[in-house]
Amino acid sequence: MPAYSDEFLGKVLKHTKRVAVVGVSLNPVRPSYYVARYLSLKGYEVVPVNPGHVGEDVFGTKVIGSLADIEGEVDIIDIFRRSEHVTPIVEEALATFPNLKTVWMQIGVINEEAAALAEARGVDVIMDRCPKIEYQRLFGELRMGGFATGVISSKL
C-alpha cells in the first residue's frame, strides 16, 4: 500500500471544499454511498457522478452523468471504480478541471499510469485509501476497534 504522511492527508482533507465522487451508488449499504454521504455531512460539497443514475437524487443532490457535465471546479475526484477503469476517468478530470488538486482512489484501487498522468500535471494522488476513514482517523472520530460508533461511554 502506498505510504502517505498524516500531515499530507490532513492537509488534503482540510483544504478540500468540493468532491466529485465517481461511481457513487444510490444503495445506502454500498461504500460509495455512505462515504459520499459522510463527506457531505462533514461540510464538503459532494457531486455524485454515475452515468447509470443521471438526474436521480442521492442525499439531496442530483447525480451527474460524467465529470465533464459538472459545472465549476472540484478539488478532489474520489474514484469508486475498478483499477483498470481509472485512467480514462483521470484523463477526463484533468481535461475538465484545470485547478484539480487531488485524485483519490478508494481502498483497493491502484493505477500507476493514472497516477503518473495526474502527478505530471501537479495534481496530488492518493491510492488505496478512503477519505472517510482518513478523516475519522485524523480528526479523532474513530473509536476503540476502529469503529465510529458515535456512542460515548465511560467504560474501559
What would you say this structure looks like, in words?
- The model is unreliable at 149-156 (pLDDT under 50).
- Strands 2-1-5-6-7 form a five-stranded parallel sheet, with helices on both faces. A two-stranded antiparallel ribbon has the order 3-4.
- It has helices at residues 6-15, 31-41, 86-96, 112-120, 131-138; strands at 18-22, 45-49, 57-58, 61-62, 76-79, 102-105, 124-126.
- The termini are far apart.
- The chain has one domain: NAD(P)-binding Rossmann-like Domain (Rossmann fold), CATH 3.40.50.
- It contains five helices and seven strands, in the order αβαββββαβαβα.
- Helix 1 packs across helix 5 and helix 3 packs parallel to helix 4.
- Helix 3 (86-96) links the parallel strand 5 and strand 6 (102-105).
- It is globular.
- It is of the alpha/beta class and 156 residues long.
For this entry, give a set of tags:
disordered C terminus, two-stranded antiparallel sheet, 156 residues, 5 helices, alpha/beta, Rossmann fold, five-stranded parallel β-sheet, 31% helix
